[in-house]
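A sample follows:
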Amino acid sequence: MTEIEVGNAEVQAPPLSPKSDLCGIAYSRATCHQFYGAICRWLRGDRSRGATIGYVNPHVFNLAKKHEAVAAFLDKGDIVAVDGAGFALALWLLKGECQTRTVMTPLFDRVLETGDLPRVPAVLIGGTEDVARQGVVAMNRVSRNIQVVAFAHGYQALAEYHDFLRDHADADVVLVAMGTPRSEEFILDASPLFPGKLFWNIGGGTLQFHAGTLRRVPKIVSTLCLQWLWRMIFEPHLMPRYVIGLPVFARHLLKARRTDKMNGVCSK
């Protein structure tokens, strides 16, 4: 959660959405519409506190089990959308919880297309120089209110982005698209140093969709929860994420279930 200083004391501000966890890995219990409303309220508000947005799926879950920074980012995040059919299925099987999926790209697009937001300057970090440039042009074409005023490619040392953010201190929103675990590590590191900003891990795929360097997943494919198959076909380099990653995800869940007998961390 976000910490706010009050006098000499520190209190924790409530997240933008209710949180829970699956085997120690945090996620938000809300629908896409509720996430959308919370983000728009932040953008319309006085923005006196910062916020962070991310997502979790089986791939991110697996990396969170290995990278403390990823797990910490998910734990502290104001919104951690369940962006993966496998994760949603695990919640139903292990916790009896019917959690709807929130694919990050459509959520981001919906916010961009919202016409009654105040003018909000943003910056983008991620992708190659060309992909970032093309993505920014497309995003600014879609949104009249959230305007990306500068970008930096996603292959610098994380500390170098501090100077970039200082140079663009007027930007209220920081869009991050460097992939896991770099995006989570960067946001975890930078968000306390730059309070009052919205750090949003939109995902590397979202940036490439806007840049036109990656085919968008058809809505029917996403509705049928076959996005994993689409990505294996059109992004074959991601095949290990599913062929190897899904069995690893299942093994984590089975191990936790066997250890805790559904009365420990998995049944929270």
